[in-house]
Amino acid sequence: MRKIINDPEAFVDEMIEGIVLAHPELVKTPTDDPRILVRADAPVAGKVGIVTGGGSGHLPLFKGYVGTGLASGVAIGNVFSSPSAKQCFEATKAVNGGAGVLYLYGNYGGDVLNFDLAADMADLEGISTETVLGCDDVASQPRERARDRRGVAGIFFAFKAAGAAAERGDSLAEVAAVAQDIVDHTATMGIGLSPTIFPVTGQASFELPEGEMEVGIGIHGEPGIHRGELESADAIVDRLVDPLVTDLSLTEGDRVAVLVNGLGSTPLEELYIMYRRVNQVLSERKISVEKVYVGEYATSLEMAGASISLLALNDDRKALLDAPAQSPFFQEG
Amino acid sequence: MRKIINDPEAFVDEMIEGIVLAHPELVKTPTDDPRILVRADAPVAGKVGIVTGGGSGHLPLFKGYVGTGLASGVAIGNVFSSPSAKQCFEATKAVNGGAGVLYLYGNYGGDVLNFDLAADMADLEGISTETVLGCDDVASQPRERARDRRGVAGIFFAFKAAGAAAERGDSLAEVAAVAQDIVDHTATMGIGLSPTIFPVTGQASFELPEGEMEVGIGIHGEPGIHRGELESADAIVDRLVDPLVTDLSLTEGDRVAVLVNGLGSTPLEELYIMYRRVNQVLSERKISVEKVYVGEYATSLEMAGASISLLALNDDRKALLDAPAQSPFFQEG
C-alpha cells in the first residue's frame, strides 16, 4: 500500500476530524456521532434541509458538498459502505429547520434501504421528507430505465441546483422537483485505468492490467461496458461523450454544463486534455457549453480514471448553477 | 503507462488549450505562442504585473494561479522543463500595465537563467522588473542558506499575498517586498511514496519500492533526507512539521497559515488525516492556526505523497491571504 494513514479502522473518523478542524467556520458535527456532518449554521429556520450520504472514499463527494447553497448535512458510512438508518435520521434532525428535508443521494441499495428507514423515523417525529436519487451512470442501465441507474459524479449538479433552490426559500416539493429535474437531465460515463485500494484490507476493488482501460466503470469498480487496450485521450472522450449526447437527445442549439471529473490519481493536466476534446466534439455538434467544471468532484480514493457528465441546460437550471455556494471544496460566486 | 493523453509531445499544448477553452472568462493566450497564458483582462493599466513560470506537470502550479488577486501571467515550459527567455519576456510584455513587473517563480537553475535574460530584454524596452524566488523546501538547504532552497508548494502563499498587494495598487518595490517577506516566512517539507511517470518517455522520475517513503523529496523527485519504511500518518506528519517549526523559530503564541498539499495521487481523505495531526501538533505547541488550505496546490503529475507548508503570520500577511482572488483553480472571498 502507498497510503498515508494511521489505524485503517480509524480512516473515516480521522478524516472527518481533519475536515472539521480545518473548516470550523463551514461545517460541524452536531451530535456525539462523528459520522454526522452538517453546515455550521444548521438548522436554518424556515428553509428546506438537504441531507445526503453514502460511503466514504469519494471526496469531495459527499462531505464536500455540505455548505451554503449546497447540501445541509451528510451521514457518512465506512469506505464504500452505507451509513446506518439512525445516522441518516440524526442528520435529518440536525438540519431540520421546520420546512422539511430532501434526501438526495446516489442510487445504491444499502443507501436506499437506510434512507427509507430514516424517512419513516422522521415521519414519526413530524418531519416531512422527500427523496431524489442521483442516477446518472448511463453505462449501468438504458435510458428507458434511467431511474434505476447508479449514481455517480453528476449528482454534483443536483446538489448545486437543489441547494440554490433551498437557499432562495423554495418549498420541500419545489426543491425536490428541482433536484429531480436536474437528475433527469444529467448523464455521466466513466473510464477506469486502475482500481481503488481499500485501506482496511489492502485489496484492490477490481483487477485491471496496466495498459488496459474499462469504459463505463462504476465508482466502486462496478463492471463497465467495454474493456480493452488503453486508447488516446480523444478516442476515450469520443467513447464517453457520444452515448451522453444520445442519452440526453442533445441536438444543434442545445445548451449544456460539462463536468470532467478525475477519479483520484489521474492528473489535472489529463482532465484538461480531455476537456479540450469534449469542447471540440460539442462544438462540432453545435451544442453550446455554458458552464464547465474540471477537477476532482467525485473520486474513488486513488483510482486512475475520469468521468464526463453532461447536464442539459435551460434558463432555470443555468441560474441555479450560477447561484452562490460555499463549502470546504466548492465555491461559486 | 496509465495516462489519458494523445501524442505525448502535444501534452502541454493540449492541456493549455483545454484550460483556455474551459475558462475563457478568466485566462487567455494573448500571443501566437500557446505557452504564454495571462489573465483575461491583462494588461491592467497602472497595476504591477506578476509573471511566473516553470515546467509543466505541477497543476495547479503555475498556470492555476493566474487570475485576479494572484499572478498576472505565466510562461509555460515542457514537463519539468523551463520556459525560454523569450517566452518569459513575451509574458512580461503581455501583463505590463506601466507599473512594472514582478518575476515570482521557484528557485531552479533553468528558470533563473531564462527569467534573468527576460529581465534584460524588458529593461531594453523600458519595463522595470524585480525578481523574488520561491525557496521554501527546508530539506534542500539549511536555514542559513534559505534563499538557495528549491521552491515548492509554499509559493502559493507568495502568489496570494503579492497578487493582493498588486491588486490594491502597491508599487513594484512594495509588491516585491511583500513577496519576499512571505517567502522568508514560509517553510515546506514533503514526502513521496511513488514517482512521477514522464508522458514522453514513460520513465519514472525516481525509483522507490512500494511500501517505502522518501522524506524531504523535491517536486521533481530530487532526493530527500530520509528513506525508509512507510510509517503512520501521524509519524509522517511529525517528521514534516517539527523541522518546519524549528526552521521558522515558531513558539507559543505565534500564528500560522497551513497548507497540506497533495502531490498527485494521494487521496484528499489522506490529506485530511494529515491535517488532523498537524492541528494536534501545533495546538500542543500553542501555535495558532489562522488559515488552512488542504488539497492539491502543487503536484508532480501522479506522484503519491504530500507536503506540508507553514507560513508564519502577522496582521499584514493575514490580511493579504484574506483578500479576494479568483483563478480557474482558486477562489477566495
Automatic annotation (TrEMBL), chains A, B:
It holds the Pfam family Dak1. GO terms for biological process: glycerol catabolic process. InterPro entries: DhaK_dom (IPR004006), Dihydroxyacetone_Kinase (IPR050861). The keyword Transcription does not apply. GO terms for molecular function: glycerone kinase activity. Gene3D superfamilies: Dihydroxyacetone kinase, domain 1, Dihydroxyacetone kinase, domain 2. Residues 7-330 form the DhaK domain. Keywords: Kinase, Transferase. This is Dihydroxyacetone kinase subunit DhaK. It comes from Pontimonas salivibrio. The lineage of its organism: Bacteria, Bacillati, Actinomycetota, Actinomycetes, Micrococcales.
